Amino acid sequence: MSYPNNISLTPPDVSAHLDEAANTISDIVKDPADDHCARPGARPDHQG
Length: 48
What we know:
Elements: E1 13-19, E2 24-30
Antiparallel strand pairs: 1-2
């Protein structure tokens, strides 16, 4: 089995955001190579 050798080893950009009204903290995880962010519950193949 072969694996792609173009995998980025750059760590993601992570920032925490406080919602004072709900008293919750959310982490936003962004791929530094593009403008996309991870969303909780989002499928990797979902566009949009």
